[in-house]
Amino acid sequence: MPEPSTLPGYLLRNANDPTFSGQPAIREKNYGIWETYDWHTYEKNTREFALGLACLGFQRDDKLSVLGNNRPRLYWAQIAAMCLGGQSVPVYQDAIASELSFVLSHSEAKVIVAEDQEQVDKILSIREQLPDLKWLIYDYDRGLGGYEVDIVKSFKEVQALGRDYGGEHPNYFEDEVAKCGSDDIALIAYTSGTTGQPKGVMLSHENLIETTRIFIENEDIRPTDNFLAYLPMAWVGDTLYSNCLSFIVGCACNCPESPESFRRDGRELGPTGMLAAPRAWEGILTSIQVRAEDSSPLKRAVFNYFCDVAEAVEQSKLEGKPVPLSLNLKHKIGEFMVYGPVRDQLGLRRARWCYTGGAPLGPDTFRFFRGFGINLKQVYGMTESSGLVSLQTSDTANPDTVGEPCPGIDVSIAKEQSEVLIRSKGVFKGYYKEDEKTREAIDAQGWFHTGDAGMIDERGHLVIVDRAKDVGKLSDGTVFAPQFVELKLKFSPYINEAVAFGDGKPFVSTMIAIDLDAVGKWAEKRQLPYTNYMDLAQKSETRALVAEEIRQINLALPEVQRIKRFLLLTKDLDADDNEVTRTRKLRRAFVTEKYAPVLNAFYGGEATVDLKLDVTFEDGSRSQIDSHLIIEEAA
Question: CATH fold of 7-272, please?
Answer without folding.
Answer: Rossmann fold (3.40.50)
